[in-house]
Amino acid sequence: MTAKSTATILLFLVGSLVCSRIHGRDAPSVVNDHEQCDPSDIRISTEATGQVVGGQPEYKVTIDNQCVCPQGDVVLSCPDGIPSSAEPVDSSKIHVQTAGLCLVNDGLPIAKGSPVTFTYAASATIDLTFYGATSQCLTSSTTH
Length: 144
Hints:
The protein has one helix at 3-23, and strands at residues 42-53, 56-65, 71-77, 94-98, 101-104, 116-121, 129-135, 141-143. By secondary structure, it is mostly beta strands. This is LGC1.
């Protein structure tokens, strides 16, 4: 075998190895850097709108996902439930799933930059804290 043939074969083998590492099962996943969403990636904010509905102050709640991966089955701790409000709360945005736990967005994923918002009117704000979610990049879960 000539030196040129040997060099060509070696080059082919190295190229094949590199391609298999890039495209094969050993290749790093596109989402490796972001496969785990952190509980702090779900941000919940409540602000007074300045409006009064039925004699009660109105509040706007925003539930935002800061993770690059969409997160579904977002559950919040809501120990007092969702109080009856002079302004009905859209149950597709949030509803009591079980005692003390509320499901957001009917369990549908919340993508980064596409927050779920709802308003309600009550004498006090609803106590909402993150409880759990499922990352949609991989089938991993994030809980508190």
